[in-house]
Specification:
8-stranded mixed beta sheet, 8 helices
């Protein structure tokens, strides 16, 4: 059963609703403009902060990606550099022996010269025939220390270039009685034959001036103003590089200087092919 509201109550409700709308309007009208401005400013700041956060996130991603690429490139460069260096660097080779040979007594270089020492060997009647004999050149008779390579080069008056010196691990001076003469020779041990051959080839035009004193060669009889090319030949089935002088009147060639391998790691420098053969035979007989 529906109950009708009394006129007084209906009027009172309408009055309250009207009063609420008016009060709300008054409140809206009474809102301070400063508060609105603050709200708008706060909204703008929040929007700017959100935009900045998005940009920072993008920048962090970009920097992270760039750093990763740089790290990968750096590792790649280091890896390639290590690989290249390992394959470029020449491995250390152990010093090889020049072989086992008979030797003379100790001769102190301070009390003799290369010419005097060779003359003494020419007069030595005890030298065995066709047997290489190494000359024990020492710094002094007290320590009896064999000359180093550089000391030997200094004693024989040879100023070898550094690349050629580095290709030789051991160098000794020796003589061999061929039956007709006492032939001096230099025997050198080379760990890397390819490198030694290259450096000798480069220095060929200077090899005679380097070693003529040690080999007893009369360089005055050789015209050094004319470039004489080396030639490849075989002596006793051994490949050698030879330097010859030519008689201008007869055209006859005379062997002046040679170098060749007695073994893969042993070079002999001499003016007499017999010295190379004697060294080769001695080393072969030891195996």
């Amino acid at each position: 059963m529906q109950t009708l509201m009394e006129p007084e109550a209906e009027e009172k409700k309408h009055s309250l609703s009207h009063d609420y709308q008016e009060d709300l309007a008054r409140v809206m009208n009474a809102t301070d403009a400063k508060v609105v401005q603050e709200l708008l400013q706060d909204a703008r700041e929040r929007e700017a902060a959100e935009t900045e956060a998005v940009e920072e996130t993008k920048e962090r991603k970009w920097y992270g990606m760039s750093s990763l690429i740089l790290v990968i490139l750096t590792l790649g460069v280091l890896g390639y550099g290590t690989y290249y260096y390992m394959h470029l660097t020449v491995k250390i080779q152990p010093a090889a022996s020049v072989g086992v040979f008979q030797s003379t007594g100790n001769i102190a270089v301070g009390s003799t010269s290369i010419a005097e020492m060779l003359k003494a060997q020419q007069l030595d009647t005890t030298l065995p025939e066709n047997r290489p004999v190494l000359i024990n050149l020492v710094t002094d008779t007290t320590s009896n220390t064999l000359l180093s390579n550089s000391q030997l080069y200094s004693f024989i008056g040879a100023t070898l270039p550094e690349p050629l010196q580095s290709a030789i691990s051991v160098a000794r001076l020796g003589v061999v009685n061929t039956g007709t003469t006492v032939a001096p020779f230099i025997i050198a041990s080379v760990p890397d034959p390819e490198k030694a051959s290259k450096e000798l080839s480069i220095a060929e035009q200077s090899l005679l001036p380097y070693f003529y004193q040690a080999l007893g060669i009369d360089i005055a009889a050789y015209d050094t103003t004319v470039p004489h090319p080396f030639e490849s030949q075989y002596f006793y089935n051994l490949p050698v590089r030879t330097l010859s002088t030519t008689n201008t009147e007869t055209g006859e060639k005379t062997l002046l200087f040679l170098y060749g391998y007695a073994t893969n790691n042993t070079i002999v420098i001499t003016a007499h092919p017999e010295a190379l053969k004697a060294v080769y035979d001695t080393i072969i007989n030891q195996h």
